[in-house]
């Protein structure tokens, strides 16, 4: 068996498994983790990939879009917090966060070598919050180009999203456009953002509004990685728990090994976010959790090592 002994007294392990992995999705590193060799290899691969410019062809396909938006508001004690302006957008929800949020599905299709069309299923996501009015909630198709691998420039369709001189158009009518910064976490996780834009009425510092439109894209069909795996030991058992941000009927497969250079073995397939491994003997144990749906498996969670005395 091969194994790697890391510097700084951090133990490492190599994980060999024949699996049908879904493509990249971010994993977590928590205090107390065992930094496994396969985990490090995944991070190095993602770092190398993310260092390159975004490529517009990588946007083609189906996506889940999670939007956080603020089109005006205040942080007053009497109000509901930030972004409580009189804004009506279909599908908006407010949770414990300060912003308003909604989700939808996107389809991005290739138009030419450097252009794509973007259409959401239910709402119009790509509006420009710097304009003084709201564009329609109904979905429309945008024509977009990627500039410099970092800026997505999108133009709305003719006769649908137009504006006049009161909003900065020098002609009778102009087509609405947006420019959004692009951050590519990996091939299957992207972020598009306008703002934040702060505005204030002249000589009235109290009237200040933060405007932004942030859209997190995750490719449909890619399983989210179990995050923040935690362990607790008691007598001859280990309690595992983790977080999961995905949706659907996902299951979680738990793997364990009992030596540094050993191989992981599957010990459970469950639908809960916690598991108790019982009747363990004295020794060291390593744990890692994967999301499973049908024949597809996510990348693995962080690795936790425990000792049973």
Describe the structure.
There is one protein chain. By secondary structure, this protein is mainly beta. It has 2 domains: 33-51 and 223-308, Sandwich (Immunoglobulin-like); 56-219, Beta Barrel (Lipocalin). The chain has one helix spanning 37-50, and strands at residues 33-34, 61-71, 93-94, 100-112, 115-120, 141-147, 151-155, 162-163, 174-175, 177-186, 189-200, 208-219, 227-234, 237-243, 251-257, 265-270, 274-277, 283-293, 296-300, 303-308. The strands form 4 sheets. It has an 8-stranded antiparallel beta barrel with strand order 2-4-5-6-7-10-11-12. Strand 18 and strand 19 form a beta hairpin. Mean pLDDT is 77; it is low at 1-24.
Arrangement of strands in the largest sheet: 2-4-5-6-7-10-11-12
How many beta-strand runs? Answer: 20
Number of helices: 1
Would you tell me which CATH topology of the largest domain applies?
Answer: Lipocalin
Low-confidence stretches: 1-24
* Rg estimate, integer Å: 24 Å
Mean pLDDT: 77
CATH architecture of the largest domain: Beta Barrel
